[in-house]
Automatic annotation (TrEMBL):
Transmembrane segments: none annotated. The keyword Repeat does not apply. GO terms for biological process: proteolysis. PANTHER family: LEUCINE AMINOPEPTIDASE-RELATED, PEPTIDASE B. Keywords: Aminopeptidase, Hydrolase, Manganese, Protease. This is Peptidase M17 leucyl aminopeptidase domain protein.
Length: 453
């Protein structure tokens, strides 16, 4: 359902108030309304709502908000207000209007591919809409939809189809290297991880933009399901592994957003898409595999497969000579243990790039948290038979994963890696249980700021 009502739709007034401004507003209301509010003990606390009485029913509502530039400050309104249209009162600054519009849309989201029904969310009636906020909302919804979709309907071939649809919509080009072609074209690590699946592994490359514009490469981990391989996950650890392509979902959505907003960038999007399955030819612990960069890797753990597909993609990204590389991956449980589900772990080899993303996260209320590339921990990835191992010690797992990937990039190429959860374990206003875009909005703001948008 559209979160926004069509122009001319009859709507009830909606007052957006915080605790500081609420008492004066309340005291200016008719005596019966003020008494009604006082009787309920309403104080416009963030996330609160109260309906206002009228002579023939509901006369309006008050939405309690906190940070007015945080989209989630408004997200509860879509679900708690009665069905129908609601018109915000008062002149809203542009930034607040964008936050309100985005938050209302996030609060209205439902994944309805397989199950429909339930009460329709309340609609927001706006005199003016922010086109960029609509595009950002669409990108966030795409991440949620793609991550929520089970693997049978979201395999490597489906990720390829998504990339082709985006390319057709925005005039981009797509190239795909699949199956045994990965060996012929020197993507051996991607092939090794995905070879046991009945669906061929592949590297999806999308290219867009003017060659005269700054070149950015965006890479997303596309492990469409992760059994753990022969180092098989326990049942509870495997249950939600349809979400292990969350990095690819973020990368694809970011590419779509950049193209929709026509940022003056030259974009290369790379998605190594595989299923980490179990079969007669599955990758085995102790194997030594080749990589595109020429480094040999001992497979210490087949469940540390994301960094294996990413290392080939990152090496290929560097060959394109971009000015900047960003990658997204649902990579380590260690990042979740360290930072919990809401804060993606940011690693970067460039302080200015890292600070730019952190600042974008603060501005958009889509935070990330910088973690150290503590290079002495490379000792945990040492191997007696290969140039390095893909895993090792249980110490500093998110750090060592990032250090592994850094080995496949030139030292002078600015690179940022986001270890994101891409998931809500439980529902909160604007954050339904299931797939989630975490770090997408701030990544877009980062790129926009870098080109002076």
């Amino acid at each position: 359902m559209n979160p926004y009502a069509s122009p001319g739709t009859p709507a009830l007034p909606l007052y957006l108030l915080d605790r500081a401004g609420y008492p004066a507003w309340r005291d200016a209301q008719p005596a019966n309304v003020a008494a009604w509010l006082k009787a309920q003990g309403f104080d416009a606390a963030p996330g609160s709502t109260v309906l206002l009485p009228g002579s023939d029913g509901i006369a309006g509502a008050v939405l309690g908000v906190g940070d007015r530039l945080d989209p989630y400050a408004y997200a509860h309104g879509a679900q708690v207000l009665p069905e129908g249209a609601w018109a915000p009162q008062g002149e809203l600054p542009a930034e607040q209007l964008a936050a309100l519009q985005l938050g209302w849309g996030l609060g209205s989201y439902r994944f309805e591919r397989y199950k429909r029904g339930g009460r329709a969310p309340a609609q927001l009636l706006l005199e003016n809409t922010d086109a960029e906020a609509l595009d950002v909302l669409a990108a966030c919804a795409r991440v949620r939809d793609w991550v929520n979709t089970p693997t049978e309907d979201m395999g490597p071939d489906h990720l390829e189809a998504i990339a082709r649809e985006l390319a057709q919509a925005h005039g981009a080009e797509v190239e795909v290297v699949a199956g045994d072609q990965l060996l012929e074209k020197n993507f051996p690590a991607i092939h090794a991880v995905g070879r046991a699946s009945h669906r061929a592994p592949r590297l999806i490359a999308l290219r867009w933009g003017d060659a005269s514009h700054p070149h950015v490469a965006v890479v997303g981990k596309g492990v469409c399901f992760d059994t753990g391989g022969l180092d098989i996950k326990p049942a509870d650890g495997m249950r939600n592994m349809k979400k292990d392509m969350g990095g690819a979902a973020h990368a694809l959505a970011l590419a779509g957003l950049v193209m929709a907003r026509r940022l003056p960038l030259r974009l290369t999007l790379l998605v190594p898409a595989v299923e980490n399955a179990i079969g007669p030819n599955a990758l085995r612990p102790g194997e030594v595999i080749a990589t595109r960069k020429g480094l040999s890797v001992e497979v210490d753990n087949t469940d540390a497969e994301g960094r294996l597909v990413l290392c080939d993609a990152l090496a290929y990204a560097a060959e394109q000579k971009p000015a900047l590389v960003l990658d997204f991956a649902t990579l380590t449980g260690a990042a979740r243990i360290a930072l919990g589900p809401d804060l993606p772990a940011l690693f970067a080899n460039d302080d200015a790039l890292a600070e730019g993303w952190l600042a974008a996260g603060r501005d958009t209320r889509d935070p990330v948290w910088r973690m150290p590339l503590w290079r002495p921990y490379l000792r945990y990835l040492s191997s007696n038979v290969a140039d390095l191992a893909n895993a090792g010690s249980r110490m500093a797992g998110a750090v060592t994963a990032a250090l592994y990937m850094e080995r496949f990039l030139p030292e002078d190429l600015p690179w940022a890696h986001l270890d994101t959860y891409a998931w809500n374990d439980s529902a909160r206003p604007g954050r339904p249980a299931g797939g989630e875009a975490l770090g997408l909005r701030s990544a877009y703001a980062l790129l926009k700021a870098r080109v002076g948008g």
